[in-house]
Amino acid sequence: MLHQVKINKIKTNNENPRFIKDFKFQKLVQSVKEFPEMLKLRPVVVNKDMVVLGGNMRLRACIEAGLKEVWIVKAWELTPEQQQEFIIKDNTSFGEWDWDVLANNWDTKEMSDWGLEIKAFGDNNAREEWVDMPEFEQEDAMPKNRIMVTFRNNEDREEFSKLIGQNITEKTKSIWHPKLEKDNLKDLRY
User: Fold this and answer.
1) Residue of higher predicted confidence among 132 and 14
2) Nearest Cα to 59, choosing from 9, 109, 17?
3) pLDDT of amino acid 166
4) How many CB atoms lie within 10 A of CB 113?
5) DSSP letter assigned to residue 3
6) CA distances from 113 to 37, 109, 176 (A)
7) Contact 56, 62 (CB under 8 A)
8) Please, which residues have CB within 8 angstroms of residue 33's CB and are 6 or more apart in sequence?
9) DSSP state of 163
C-alpha cells in the first residue's frame, strides 16, 4: 500500500550494489525537481526497518532536491533472502530500447534531458567505445557512416561472419576489418 512519510524516517541502503554518479545523479535530482509527481508512481520500497529495498538513488536524489516527504511502499512481509533478491531484481534491466521507435516517435533532446543516454557514432562518447579497436588506431580512421548489425544469438553472428568473410575478434566479439597495407577502406563497406 502506498504511504507518504517524512523523508528522514527512511534509511538509505548501504548494501545496495547500484549507484549513480556525478552527471547522471544530477540529472536524476533535476528530474525529481521538475516532475515530483513521478515519485508517487515509482515509490521507494522499504522493509520493516524503513531501509530502502528499491529506489535508493531516487531517495538520495529526493534528499538532494530538498524534499521533506516521499512516497513509499512497505514490503514488510519479505524474508531477508527475498529482500536481497528484490534489490538485485529491481536493479536489473531485462528490456532493451527499440531505437527505431525512439528515433521516429520521440524527441532526442527531451529523451536526453530525461536521462536516456543516446550515443551516435561520431560523438565523443561513442568514439571512446571505439578506442583500441583494430580499425580505430589512427585518429581519423573511424568512417563517418557505419552500419551496426545486431544478432539474436552467436550462431547468427558466426554465420554472418562467414558470409562476409570476416573474423570475429576475441576482445570484442564483433566483426572488424583488419587494417591491411594498400587496403581501401571504402571497398570494405557493405
Assistant:
1) 14
2) 9
3) 72
4) 13
5) E
6) 17, 6, 33
7) no
8) 65
9) H
Residue 60 shares a structural domain with residue 17: yes
- Domain total of the chain: 2
With DSSP H G I counted as helix, E B as strand and the rest as coil, what are the percentages for the chain, rounded to 5?
40, 10, 45
Per-position DSSP letters for 99-130, written without gaps between them: HHHHHHHS-HHHHHHTT-----TTSHHHHHHH
21-35, 39-53, 72-86, 174-188: which has the minimum mean pLDDT?
A: 174-188
Residue type, 66: G
95 located within any domain? no
The whole-chain average pLDDT of the chain stands at 77
* Residue that has been written with the C-alpha cell 547500484 in this structure: 18
Give the pLDDT mean for 76-93. Answer: 90
Q: What is the CATH number of the domain that holds 50?
A: 3.90.1530
Parallel, antiparallel or unpaired: strands 52-54 and 44-46: antiparallel
Q: Which domain holds residue 71?
A: 2-90
Q: Which helix (H) or strand (E) holds 75?
A: none
Tell me the DSSP string of 6-25: EGGG-B--TT------HHHH
**Phi, psi dihedral angles at 78 (to 5 degrees):** -75, 140
